Amino acid sequence: MFDNLSDKLLGDFEKEYETVMTWNKSQQAIYIIWNWEAEVNNGGFNQFYFNSSGRFYQHLPDALKLVGSKEFADLAERANKIYEQENDTITKHQNGTIEGFSKSYEDNPLNELDPVFFELHTEDLQEIQIEFIRKNKTEFIDN
Questions:
Q1: Is the pLDDT of residue 123 over 70?
Q2: What string of H, E and C letters represents the secondary structure of the chain?
Q3: What is the pTM of this model?
């Protein structure tokens, strides 16, 4: 499903946010959640907010609620609150270099959420999304 949604971007990632926001809420949710999960699995919450997928952070809790993942939605809300309140601290070293990005992990308040995310994987986020897609098939069919 994610690949089909990604294909709708037509390779134009400069307009990714604008394009995704034209989709229905179900399509947006799957796209946003998949990106979030991939980023956090790869480099933690810091990486999610740093990379382009972080543009969707304000939509993430609602996307997770839509598919039926309350625990992950609560975690996303907690992360968003930290990100907004501690943004200066989190981004102070992020100068566009790999060194700056690496240094941004030091004393980053988002780091405390990474283990919480992995502990929550007892709630299988992929299975929740699959069940959501199956129950809402028509939301994913383009006319």
A1: no
A2: CHHHHHHCCCCCHHHHHHHHCCCCHHHHHHHHHHHHHHHHHHHHHHHHHHCHHHHHHHHHHHHHHHHCCHHHHHHHHHHHHHHHHCHHHHHCCCCCCHHHHHHCCCCCHHHHHHHHHHHHHHCCHHHHHHHHHHHCHHHHCCC
A3: 0.92
Q: Could you tell me which residues come within 8 angstroms of residue 102 by beta carbon, excluding any fewer than 6 positions away?
A: none
Cα–Cα distance measured from residue 133 to residue 102, given in angstroms and rounded to the nearest whole number: 36
Amino acid at residue number 131: E
Encode pLDDT of 80-114 as tens digits. 999 999 999 999 998 988 999 999 999 999 999 99
Produce one character per residue of 27-47: b if its CB has 16 or more CB atoms within 10 Å, e if not.
bbbbbbbbbbbebbeeebbbb
